[in-house]
Backbone:
């Protein structure tokens, strides 16, 4: 993989448009389709890296924006990167920081060269450009890095989508150039760099973006700027058509989505990689994804519906019940949190006990809920890998 | 142990006044000296029962006051007790609820028959008496139960100490009676009931209390009403003299104390059982007990000093450094949290990383700090058991 144009990705099997693949990174192989749990600023919420690996995670995601603010570039360099800092041995992907500057920082001003913003923590001023993003991701030491991009808000005008897409293309070229400089002369495997397709819900803008990116040449391609407020139908339409046009020999990554039914649908459209805050964020609020019976059967049924073009809610109802564990109805419920979950804690502790932990504000509750939801997502991916490897 | 006057406790070795013992409960044997981590309302803060057991805990403590309010007596009965509810297989001790009614509830009014109080959670009114305390502890299903007592505030007048002590004696007799009724006809092992010596810092009141309790007859005897604001010298003086007079064939339990140096001293005075919120409470604030070198050497040195009658700070300085992990000086500290700690996480993760978790508000930080502090206390007890088993 020392050549940018030799692909780090092998498609091992096809099931319709869905792919069973393997992505080779400098820190290990990632079997796809894959879900990446989020280790925001170098921590997987309440969990140890070994616990997340135990649930079946092979790769995690770190946020460049958070890591830049804390512990900061200098500390990360000192520790040899965030993987060493947090003791995660496997591959790690970093976003470019752009999206969170836009969504989290107090003040941010985008110009053609980059973004100036104030930290949401202490108000300190920082600047991100394509070059700086590459340098910070290098200090973080991630296995997969994302180009710096300009993300238009959901429901922007076509002009704004077009502007953001074109600016992202220019930043893509600059990201690639700085990335190549940083990895010139690196011995052994180099990290991977992914480009990001922008263009909102406009197919022609998306096509133009993809065309520009493939001309530059990336190790993988991501679909950015979706799941930001547009309708689910629009997202499905764009992902389905875009996935068909994305290079077949490169990994495809849907950024920042989504619900389990979305992931099943996007896999059926040919997407390989996913991340999302939902399993951990929902866990924090006591909202749990609970298997509807045997996961193998549930995912197979959901996948079949997705292949048949079913709407999202039809896919969802084959997969899971969403339960609010704080509800009174669980007060005396002695059944396990989820007898089908991969997390041993979900099969051991009762719903009544987990409700009690939430009601008494015990942080052990967050842990059990996070294990439940991540266990659900990661098991779903395992079943999707089995289905795509063994076409019906 | 179906006879109240056959002792559940064996002294296996003596080292001066210090004892190496074994306490037989219906849920397993507790090797003493022992520290009991606190599972307030059925949860060991951020930790799973299996993790606390893995650090060497053989018995934990539940708070009757908290468990009465949530999940409540009825739910506990439904689940067969809090041990089943929280999946703790080993022995569990419950306090009587009295101390926390006094320290936590909004309004509380003590009369000769009991205490009426308002829940600190929802303001609901409850009443505790000796009989009710026994009934609730029975619903909790603890292995060791404490008599209901009246705790005088620290620095009370002699009259108040005297009143509380005498009232506690009357409640001791009533506790014993109701306890015996509840366990009459129970097949197999019965739970244990401990009496509590009161009397503040007045030796004669303490002696009178102990005399009254032994006349009633309990499975074990506790020292209550200390570590509530009196000077450390007063505590040492009372514990040292009282331990000598407590029945040699029964376990002695110092309630609600204390710092590691206190525990070492009280063990040298002949006390067998301890509990304290300090390791978990300090962890919550990033305050850590870190070994001063090899635990075996540190505890032996501390114990020798305690046997020589050293002051508490002299014992402490042989044992640990107390570090505030949020301090700037740990920002780049790549050394492990504590290379000597029993918790694997303390030997794996760096101080800089733990500081980072606290600074970013990641709950994983609470977990690592709790493992560190409980790991310290539980290893200290292990060393104390080795020392008392093998006199110098």
Residues:
């Amino acid at each position: 993989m020392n050549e940018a144009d030799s692909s780090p990705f092998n498609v091992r099997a096809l099931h319709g448009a869905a792919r069973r693949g393997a992505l080779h990174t400098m820190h290990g192989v990632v079997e796809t389709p894959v879900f990446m749990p989020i280790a925001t600023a170098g921590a997987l919420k309440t969990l140890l890296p070994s616990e997340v690996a135990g649930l079946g995670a092979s790769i995690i995601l770190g946020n460049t924006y958070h890591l830049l603010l804390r512990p900061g570039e200098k500390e990360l360099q000192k520790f040899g990167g965030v993987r060493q800092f947090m003791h995660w041995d496997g591959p790690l992907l970093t976003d470019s920081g752009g999206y969170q500057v836009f969504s989290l920082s107090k003040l941010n001003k985008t110009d053609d060269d980059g973004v100036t913003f104030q930290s949401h923590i202490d108000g300190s001023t920082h600047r991100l450009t394509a070059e700086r993003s590459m340098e910070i991701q290098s200090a973080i030491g991630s296995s997969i890095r994302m180009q710096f991009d300009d993300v238009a808000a959901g429901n922007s005008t076509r002009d704004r989508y077009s502007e953001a897409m074109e600016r992202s293309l220019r930043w893509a070229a600059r990201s690639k150039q700085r990335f190549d400089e940083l990895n010139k002369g690196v011995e052994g495997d180099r990290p991977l760099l992914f480009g990001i397709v922008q263009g909102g819900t406009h197919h022609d803008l998306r096509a133009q973006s993809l065309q520009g990116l493939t001309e530059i040449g990336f190790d993988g391609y991501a679909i950015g700027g979706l799941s930001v407020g547009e309708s689910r139908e629009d997202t499905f339409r764009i992902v389905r058509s875009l996935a068909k046009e994305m290079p077949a020999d490169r990994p495809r990554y849907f950024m920042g989505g989504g619900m389990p039914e979305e992931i099943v649908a996007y896999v059926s459209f040919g997407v390989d990689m996913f991340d999302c805050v939902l399993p951990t964020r929902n866990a924090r609020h006591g909202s749990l994804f609970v298997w509807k019976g045997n996961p193998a059967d549930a995912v197979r049924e959901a996948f079949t519906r997705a292949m048949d073009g079913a709407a999202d809610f039809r896919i969802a109802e084959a997969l899971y019940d969403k339960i609010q564990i704080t509800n009174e109805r669980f007060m005396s419920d002695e059944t396990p949190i989820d007898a089908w979950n991969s997390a041993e804690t979900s099969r051991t502790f009762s719903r009544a006990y987990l409700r009690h932990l939430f009601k008494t504000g015990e942080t052990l509750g967050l842990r059990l809920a996070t294990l439940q939801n991540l266990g659900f997502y990661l098991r779903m991916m395992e079943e999707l890998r089995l289905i795509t490897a063994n076409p019906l």
Q: What stands out?
A: The mean pLDDT of chain B is 95. The interface with chain A takes residues 40-48, 66, 70-71, 75, 78-79, 85-87, 331-332, 334, 345, 348-350, 352-353, 356-357, 359-360, 362-367 of chain B (CB under 8 Å). The radius of gyration of chain B is 20 Å.
